[in-house]
From TrEMBL:
It comes from Deinococcus humi. This is DNA-binding transcriptional ArsR family regulator. The lineage of its organism: Bacteria, Thermotogati, Deinococcota, Deinococci, Deinococcales. SUPFAM superfamilies: Winged helix' DNA-binding domain. GO terms for molecular function: DNA binding; DNA-binding transcription factor activity. The keyword DNA-binding applies. Residues 2-72 form the HTH arsR-type domain. Keywords: DNA-binding. The keyword DNA-binding applies. Signal peptide: none annotated.
Length: 72
């Protein structure tokens, strides 16, 4: 198990949220769960960009992903 120092985690979160797309994605997800395809349309981005950004946000501990449905 990886141990994360609170200050390092806080800096990681702040650095991640400093990106406008990441901030908007977290804001949208705060309103409820959304699939990648919904985020793609709402953010006007390609699927691979949304997926890549979500991976970075998941690594920072900001989002949790679920595989569900026909698109998983």
């Amino acid at each position: 198990m990886r141990v994360v120092v609170p200050e390092v985690w806080t800096l990681t979160v702040l650095k991640t949220l400093a990106n406008d797309i990441h901030y908007e994605t977290v804001r949208l997800l705060g309103a409820g769960e959304r699939c990648v395809y919904a985020l793609e349309a709402l953010l006007n981005l390609l699927q691979d960009k949304v997926s890549c950004d979500l991976t970075g946000m998941r690594d920072a501990g900001l989002v949790v992903g679920k595989l569900r449905g026909k698109n998983s």
